[in-house]
Amino acid sequence: MLGLYPSDCAGKSVSGDDACNVRPMDDREWIARFAAALGVPAPTDAEYEVLLALAGTAAHASARTAAPVSCWVAGRAGVSLEEAKQVAETIAGG
């Protein structure tokens, strides 16, 4: 079973085929696996940092949910990450 939270395994046995034996992935590993599954390269370290900055700008200027959706819109628009970040900063007033 995937999608467990650490609290889901609290006090449970971690033997055999138990899903609690699954090591949680860090963010970069998850993104790398997700990108590979979709057939695209994972973001570089520099791209990752710009994406986080874009998401941070959106989240701090609006609701937190604006962060992932803004990144999706930027990807859909086909603009560079730097351009998307600049547009977000302009909208946010920064």
Coarse morphology: globular
Structural class call reads: mainly alpha
H and E string: HHHH
With helices defined by DSSP (H or I, 4 residues minimum), what is the helix count? Answer: 4
**Main sheet?**
none
Q: Using only CA atoms, what is the Rg?
A: 17 Å
What is the β-strand count?
0
The overall pLDDT, averaged over residues, is 87
Strand content: under 5%
Helix content: 55-70%
Low-confidence stretches are none
Distance between the termini: 43 Å
Whole-number tally of structural domains: 2
Give an account of the 3D structure:
The mean pLDDT is 87. The N and C termini lie far apart (43 Å). The chain is built from four helices and no strands. 56% of the residues lie in helices and 0% in strands. The longest helix has 17 residues. It folds into two domains: 31 residues, no CATH class; 52 residues, no CATH class. It is mostly helical and 94 residues long.
Quick structural summary:
Helix content is 56%, strand content 0%. It has 94 residues and is mostly helical.
Keywords for this structure?
94 residues; mainly alpha; 4 helices; globular
Task: Describe the protein's topology.
Blueprint: H1 27-38, H2 45-61, H3 66-77, H4 81-92
Helix pairs in contact: 2-3, 2-4
